[in-house]
């Protein structure tokens, strides 16, 4: 680009040649200068007019500023209303969780009064219907309260989960699984002793079965004895905790040893006729604090629970 300057005072014409980069620099400088000048004009003229109340300029400035503030206020109000509706939805969901927590806690044995004492007098209501437009501070306080209540309800569900797990572990340690399938030949109580012919207490249940039939653990626990006893023959004792022990006698073969941990339904031995026995069968005992109990009560509880569960699903229980 060339710029030619001629004047009557000059003896000859002056020619300036500008490249593209020089032209761009000149234009950028001019643009920057115009921005600077506009800023100075706005600062020293329009702001001064607004402060001192100049007749025309001050009214224009007030209209512009008022419109900007109105737009900003409308934008903030719309966001606050949306946030308020969201808070209302969170309150309703938290109330639903509280109702579910009360029902589940009652199932695991937690008292409702204890739960209410631990939880705050939390959010009330349902769908959010604003009676007045809430402020940002009010919404922030409500969100903090919801966050605190949600944390407490999370702790409550953790406690309920712990109680359920504990009950499940206790159920796994109750000997209500039949150690051998099939009928029993001799129950718990007094009977004629097959060797002496006199009345004697039979301390367990007898399950007749062929030699080699698998014997299953009636519940999970730890093996405390796996030995050859003069009366019981090859026998296994399993400790299920809470002074509860099951005994499996007259086996032909043992598959566990003391110290082993077994689970419900695990094969621990095979049916035989060792010890004081007249034929192949399993002698099954349940002892609480060393005192023999009627094993049929534990097995009957298992059958009733199965029947109730199948009845609830609309299916007949199998015998």
What does this structure look like?
With 319 residues, this protein is α+β, with helices and mostly antiparallel strands. The protein contains five helices and 13 strands. The strands form three sheets. Strands 5, 6, 7, 8, 9, 10, 11, 12 and 13 form a nine-stranded antiparallel β-sheet that branches. Strands 1-2 form a two-stranded antiparallel ribbon. Helix 1 (20-52) crosses helix 2 (57-107) and helix 2 (57-107) packs parallel to helix 4 (136-172). It is elongated and about 150 Å long. The relative contact order is 0.08. Mean pLDDT is 77; it is low at 122-129 and 303-319.
N-to-C terminal Cα separation, in Å?
A: 106 Å
Q: Low-confidence parts lasting 5 or more residues at pLDDT below 50?
A: 122-129, 303-319
Number of strands: 13
Question: Could you tell me the strand content as a percent range?
Answer: 15-25%
Structural class: alpha+beta
Element order, helices and strands? Answer: EEHHHHEEEEEEEEEEEH
- Form type: elongated
Instruction: Describe the sheet with the most strands.
Output: 9 strands, antiparallel
Q: Helicity range of the residues?
A: 40-55%
Integer average pLDDT: 77
**What is the radius of gyration computed over CA atoms, rounded to a whole number of angstroms?**
45 Å
Number of helices: 5
């Amino acid at each position: 680009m060339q710029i030619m300057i001629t004047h009557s005072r000059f003896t000859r014409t002056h020619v300036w040649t500008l490249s593209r980069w020089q032209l761009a620099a000149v234009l950028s400088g001019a643009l920057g200068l115009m921005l600077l000048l506009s800023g100075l004009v706005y600062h020293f003229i329009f702001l001064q007019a607004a402060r001192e109340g100049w007749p025309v300029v001050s009214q224009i400035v007030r209209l512009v500023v008022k419109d900007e503030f109105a737009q900003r206020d409308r934008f903030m109000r719309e966001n606050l209303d949306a946030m308020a509706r969201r808070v209302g939805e969170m309150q309703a969901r938290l109330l639903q969780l509280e109702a579910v927590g009360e029902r589940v806690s009652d199932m695991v044995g937690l008292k409702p009064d204890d739960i209410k004492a631990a939880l705050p007098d939390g959010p009330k209501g349902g769908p959010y219907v604003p009676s007045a437009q809430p402020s940002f501070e009010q919404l922030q306080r409500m969100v903090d309260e919801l966050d605190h209540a949600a944390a407490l309800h999370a702790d409550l569900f953790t406690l309920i989960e712990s109680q359920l797990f504990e009950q499940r572990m206790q159920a796994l340690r109750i000997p209500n699984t039949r150690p051998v399938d099939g009928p029993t030949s001799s129950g718990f109580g007094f009977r004629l002793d097959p060797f002496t012919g006199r009345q004697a207490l039979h301390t367990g249940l007898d399950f007749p079965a062929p030699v080699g039939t698998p014997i299953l653990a009636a519940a999970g626990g730890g093996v405390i004895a796996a030995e050859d006893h003069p009366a019981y023959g090859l026998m296994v004792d399993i400790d299920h905790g809470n002074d509860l022990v099951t005994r499996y006698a007259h086996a032909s073969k043992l598959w566990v040893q003391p110290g082993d941990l077994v689970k419900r339904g695990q094969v621990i031995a095979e049916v035989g006729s060792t010890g004081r026995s007249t034929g192949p069968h399993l002698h099954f005992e349940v002892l609480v604090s060393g005192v023999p109990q009627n094993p049929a009560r534990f097995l009957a509880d298992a059958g009733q629970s199965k029947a109730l569960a199948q009845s609830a699903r609309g299916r007949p229980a199998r015998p």
